[in-house]
Request: fold
Amino acid sequence: MSHGDFEGYGGRHVPEPLEEPLEQLANAYDEIGKSDEFQAEFRDHLAEYAGRPTSLYHAKNLSEPYDAEIYLKREDLLHGGAHKINNCLGQALLAKKAGRERLIAETGAGQHGTATAMVGALFGLKTEIYMGKKDVERQKMNVFRMRLMGAEVNEVTRGGEGLADAVDAALEDLVENVEDTHYLVGSVVGPDPFPRMVRDFQSVIGEEAREQFIDRTGGLPDAAVACVGGGSNAMGLFHAFRDDEEVALYGAEGGGEGADSSRHAAPLAAGNDDVIHGMKTRVIDEDVEVHSVSAGLDYPGVGPEHAMFREIGRCEYTGVTDDEALAAFRKLSETEGIIPALESSHGVARGLQLADEGEHDTILVNLSGRGDKDMETAAELFSFE
Ligand SMILES: *Cc1c(COP(=O)(O)O)cnc(C)c1O
Reply:
């Protein structure tokens, strides 16, 4: 396998009509996307539009009961409230430079669709979002948000009317409109060049965090932790540390509802090798219902570079249950006045487990997003009466 090969994972497993446009995109990324001019412009947008650098926060209250110091990389402070904007700015800028006039994307809960709508407005690109009918009904506010920013939201009524059907609809659109359209993929998933390109656009997270950590403490963290859906915030954090063997890496997947272990979204901890959405990676069996309290971790596959990290033992991946994530969600809110996204709460939960185990003195957790979007879900799960 020549394209995007992560020790046998990854690749470009796509139908014939998509081979040529993906090759063009890979060339555009290698030639334009890696140029100094592009990188300078990208950094300007990250600073001025998205609000980088984000702070590295020493969570002293959260760390208090443990013999470990927990630090949070505050991606929740970015425009839009999560790390997704890093990738969307990179891909939209590349699409514009490569002469594309139109962005398409699929979205489940609506977070990636919203981030895509932002950059569509910013760069003056026509933006269409594919979303399953079920998700459109469940996520009315996000649909409203996308439309407010000028994006068209296409309701997908085929199949199960969910995320997988939205992916299919977006791919069909791409095949018909390859000349003027860029498919803005939301994580380190899909065929080459997406896994490496999205990783590179997100790697600013780890580059900043590594430098900030050294400035603050004089050394590297003993552990770096992130939640894993498709795997983009995790790979964005991990990449800067991959050659620092003294930094242990931990990925936290959605582990479903705990008591019923047949329901999980943990392809790394509990899946098998397979081909899905154009890549070879770790995939959850088809007959297992993928479920996590956080919509952003509800993906049956995972980025191929994570599959490789698992295979070579560079990162340890564990399923975190809904209950564990919710406990961390409440703990961080109560102790620090920071409400994390439910996705990010899985990473916080894993960080707290590690602090409790006491093997690492310093633990860096990527706080991938803020929890404002999750208030309704949380209010259904517990109350204060
Ligand atoms: C979308 C999302 C995720 C999951 O995506 P990754 O590609 O795994 O990073 C995690 N956290 C937040 C806040 C998200 O919005």
